[in-house]
Amino acid sequence: MFFKTDALAQASNLQVDGKLYDTDKNLINAHGAGMLFHKGIYYLFGEIKKGTTWEVPNQNWEDYRVPAGGVSCYSSTDLKHWKYQGIALSPVTGDQANDLDTGRVIERPKVIYNSKTKKFVMWVHIDKNDYGYAHAGVAISDKPAGPYSYLGSSRPNGQMARDMTLFKDDDGKAYLIYASENNMTMQICLLSDDYLSPTTKYIRILENQHREAPALFKWQKKYYLITSLCSGWDANPAKYATANNIMGKWEQKGNPCIGKDSATTFNSQSTYVLPLYKNKGAFIFMADRWNKTNLEKSDYLWLPLTVTNGKIEIKSAETSVR
Ligand code: DGJ
Q1: What is the best residue among 269, 271, 288, 289 to mutate for testing ligand 1's pocket, by most ligand atoms within 8 Å of CB?
Q2: Which of 28, 67, 77, 228 could form a disulfide with 213 if both were Cys (CB 3.0 to 4.6 A apart)?
Q3: Distance 234 CA to ligand 1 centre (A)
């Protein structure tokens, strides 16, 4: 039975399938995106993918790459009209040793606000072309849209960190969630009170399940984590896990996608789940439709997501719009 509420109707109204344009009619360039909601404004942050896609030679997988263009920021009050706010985290050129060089990998930026320090904190996956560096980078700003000052990167507790997301809990504690151990196992690490460094408190979850693209949200005291399988830029089935305690036991569930093309997450890969703040219980599942041989031309898929009795459902555009 189709679950229909005002919340779902609102989320359905915000669907995106394909391109997104800003208020200047330029294509929105914000991949592997995340969202910050601050003082009534939504801020969208994402990877700037610009330029020719190329394949890194001598890899045993399809390592397609595009110059790392830094992190973009767009703002909106209605999630429909997006104003370009500029580059939130700028790349540098001609300095291969610098984490932010355009020849490196800058992926999946996420931003949260620290109400104690009054700073906006960005975490982002920093890597080298062969993805062997596997670091988590952190940057800080006084303003939501930036510019952000880069503070550096590390492997939290010596652990690899690739695809990542951030989660700020109701008690103000924040967590970094990242694909680790060569993408075999995810980890969740509690951040320091200023959100600028990993603490030694971390857990290993979804062990040996080869998951990435984490998107974590909380609803009615339960935590939900959507992930993809690891298959480069190719789409695969999503799965979700649930937990009653973020640092507690996580239980892997099934595929949250329903209907045609659910086996490929509707030809996309998760990046974020956005709670709609004015309509509690409504969520948008945000995903990337990678165009692996022309990454700049990758599309976006935003779909309504419902949670009913602890079960996530994401339906494709055709079935969810009424
Ligand atoms: C899948 C990841 O989810 C992306 O963010 C990116 O790192 C690609 N792999 C690289 O192939």
Answers
A1: 269
A2: 228
A3: 9
Side-chain-side CA neighbours of 78 within 13 Å: the count stands at 5
Alpha carbon of 179 to ligand 1 centroid (Å)? 11
Structure tokens at 171: 């008690």
Q: Please, which residues have CB within 8 angstroms of residue 58's CB and are 6 or more apart in sequence?
A: none
Residues touching ligand 1 (Cβ under 6 Å) are 32, 107-108, 163, 212-213, 232-233, 269
Helical residues (DSSP H) of the chain, grouped into ranges: 6-12, 317-320
Q: How far away, in angstroms, is 6 Cα from ligand 1 center?
A: 35
| Amino acid type, 45 | F
Q: CB-based contacts of 278: which residues, under 8 Å, 6+ apart?
A: none
Residue 137 and residue 150 in contact, taking contact as beta carbons nearer than 8 Å? yes
- Ligand 1 centroid distance, CA of 59 (Å): 14
List the beta bridge partners of residue 175.
167, 190
Look at residue 83 and give its three-state secondary structure.
strand
Question: Over its length of 322 residues, how does the chain's per-residue pLDDT go in tens digits?
Answer: 234 456 667 778 889 999 999 999 999 999 999 999 999 999 999 999 999 999 999 999 999 999 999 999 999 999 999 999 999 999 999 999 999 999 999 999 999 999 999 999 999 999 999 999 999 999 999 999 999 999 999 999 999 999 999 999 999 999 999 999 999 999 999 999 999 999 999 999 999 999 999 999 999 999 999 999 999 999 999 999 999 999 999 999 999 999 999 999 999 999 999 999 877 888 999 999 999 999 999 999 999 999 999 999 999 865 554 3
Whether the CB-CB separation of 155 and 134 falls below 8 Å is answered with yes
Entry pTM:
0.96
**Residue whose structure tokens are 């397609």:** 64
Residue type at position 1: M
Cβ contact 15:317 at 8 Å? yes
**111: its two tokens:** 């931003």
